[in-house]
Every structure is written in C-alpha cells, then in structure tokens.
Amino acid sequence: MAFARLDSHVWTLTYKWARHSHPNKPKRWVVARHYGAFNKSRQDRWVFGDRESGAYLSKFGWTKIVRHQLVPGTASPDDPALTEYWAARRRRNKPPLDRTSLRLLRTQHGRCPECGDLLLHADREPQSPGQWEQWLQATRKAIGKQAIIADAGPGTPDETVTFRLLHAHCRRRLTTESGTGPALLTARKP
Fold first, then answer.
1. 13 secondary structure, DSSP code
2. What are the residues facing 35 on neighbouring strands?
3. What is the pLDDT of residues 151-190, one digit of tens each?
4. pLDDT, tens digit (0-9, with 9 covering 90-100), for 71-88
5. CB-based contact 152:161 (threshold 8 Å)
C-alpha cells in the first residue's frame, strides 16, 4: 500500500516534469516519448524512461518484501547448543561491499591469503541500531581507507590476472620483501 502511494507520487512528479518540458506537444506524444514497457520482466507500460539509452526509473512496488524471521522463543546467543544456528543466522547478513569484493571474500573464506587472519571482524552481529551504524562505518572506513585492498595475485604475463583481498599491511610487507615496491623508511630519532 505504501509503495503504491509512493509510485503514484513519483508518477505524478515525472508526468508533470514531462508535460512542463514539452509544453507544445500533446499528452499522447509526451506519454509515448517518456513512458513504456522498459523493464522486459514486468508487464507495466507506465514505466518512466529513456528510449535511446534504455535507462528507466524503477518502481517502489517492484521491491521484494522480505519478512523478518523471528528468533525462536528461548534461543540465546549464549547457549552452546545453538552455536550453529546463530552462526548460520549471522552468515545471512552480507557486509556492505560491492559484488566483486563479496565474491572474493566468499572464495577466500573471509581470510587474508598472506597472514590467514579474518579480513572483516564480526564475531557477533550488532544488537542495536547504534552498533549496526558503528559496524557499517568501521567496515566502510576500512575498505575506503585501503585497509583491505584488492590485489592482483602473483603470476606470469601469459596468465590471466586473478584478484584477491589482502590486508593493507600484508600488501606493504609483500612489496617490501619482493623489492617491487617502496621500502618502509626507518623512523628518525628526535
């Protein structure tokens, strides 16, 4: 119901914009130019889009509704008998990464290939919105500040390059050991 109202509101705004952009054209021309069945998987011909590029505006009503799965009555994260249940539940939540990084994280089993430590530390799922916000900010900052980087693995020029996720400090150690990167300078004495 809420998504339908949002879609109706967005349609009103886009239609007003289209009519305002072409004041001397009839309504049918405006509709034929800006609306159509742009999404081939949907039977909806009132999708706002661009015929030249094929880009279109997704509708709110297309969002899949995912119901929250309730925790069974007496299940506690501290119960040793339910360790596997809680681990499976935590695995369902994906970290805020792009598809490539998620795929690499999955193939590496969440571990750095050099040191073997976990790339993202989340021993238990955050319990409050504040904790979630803090965890998401820390994860984005670690990736944004290059604490976790995608690196082309070692290989010959004939092979295809395979990427892997590494800790930034492991990458620096590799480049200094192999001599391919800048060596770390020793600290000056005061």
1. H
2. 48
3. 555 555 666 656 777 777 777 777 676 665 544 444 444 4
4. 788 888 778 888 888 777
5. yes
